Amino acid sequence: MSESERAADGFTRTADKYDEIVRHNIMGAHRLVMSIPSGEYRRVLDVGCGTGSSSLAMVERFGCDEVVGVDPAQGMLDQMAEKLDAFPGTRFSLLPEDVMEMSAPDASFDAVISSMAFHWFEDKPAAVAEMARVLKPGGIMAILGSGRGGEEAFRLALAGIDPPIPARWMAAFDFIQRDVHELDDYFRQAGLEPIDVWMERRRRCTPVEDFLARMRVVAGHLASDLDQQQRTQLEGRVEQAIRDVSTPDGFVYDFTKLFGVARKPE
């Protein structure tokens, strides 16, 4: 099973908890949409649309005529579908598609957005190129993903566990995180003109229980090859490692989001 397939399966299992647990991602989606230049975006494609935060923010800001949301996790699409009655003026289509297997025609959208899904794309430059394929000349692409250097405290806590945790967990940091210059380069490789690429770093002091709940929702698929007993044992070891480095303020860690906005030349 590919990493994308693992992620899709994991997010389907946790979709009903996503909005409650990962509110920071929802706020980030709104900031991404607010960074898009003013204009008319009648047809919008949301890649890895999840529960719909970015799509609905686009409708609220720009009054889009049509939004197509694609996500390989059917459970996330089901959660988004429950919200759409509140936006009767916009046509929505929700498709269970991966970024590299999209059915959208070339040059068919005024804007292509992707919020907090980009970091799970296996081939990130190819994914940007595929999203650029369906973007109209003059259209805007906006991406939000995981920034390089975030969650270092979590990485160090995991690295100190003995016996070592599964290698896939440690490899996930380098798999998902990218820096400003890397996203800028992906845009340029895809023939786009970067407008604004930046990182946002925030320091969180969070109860251990809340941090673990977030991990179950956004990264539970990393343990999908373990049976229930193995997952329970692993989670117990991870919890203890986090508690060992926690402070009276809770588990303190930096979380870094990577934002990028680019235009397709006319």
Account of the protein in words:
- The chain has helices at residues 3-21, 23-34, 53-62, 74-81, 124-133, 152-159, 167-176, 180-189, 208-219, 228-245; strands at 43-47, 66-70, 91-95, 109-115, 135-146, 193-206, 251-263.
- It has 10 helices and 7 strands.
- The protein is α/β, with parallel strands linked by helices and 266 residues long.
- It has a domain at 3-150 and 176-204 and 256-263: Rossmann fold (3-Layer(aba) Sandwich).
- Helix 3 links the parallel strand 1 (43-47) and strand 2 (66-70).
Salient structural properties:
266 residues; alpha/beta; Rossmann fold; 7-stranded mixed β-sheet; 44% helix; 23% strand; globular
Entry summary:
By secondary structure, the chain is of the alpha/beta class. The chain has helices at 3-21, 23-34, 53-62, 74-81, 124-133, 152-159, 167-176, 180-189, 208-219, 228-245; strands at 43-47, 66-70, 91-95, 109-115, 135-146, 193-206, 251-263. The longest helix has 19 residues, at 3-21.
Helix content: 40-55%
- Please state the overall shape, judged from the principal axes of the Cα atoms: globular
- Sketch the major β-sheet: 7 strands, mixed
- Give the CATH H-level superfamily of the domain at 3-150 and 176-204 and 256-263: Vaccinia Virus protein VP39
Mean pLDDT: 93
Judged by helices, strands and strand pairing, the structural class is alpha/beta
Q: Total number of β-strand segments?
A: 7
Order of helices and strands: HHEHEHEEHEHHHEHHE
Strand content: 15-25%
By CATH reckoning, the class of the domain at 3-150 and 176-204 and 256-263 would read Alpha Beta
Strand order of the largest sheet: 3-2-1-4-5-7-6
The CATH architecture category of the domain at 3-150 and 176-204 and 256-263 equals 3-Layer(aba) Sandwich
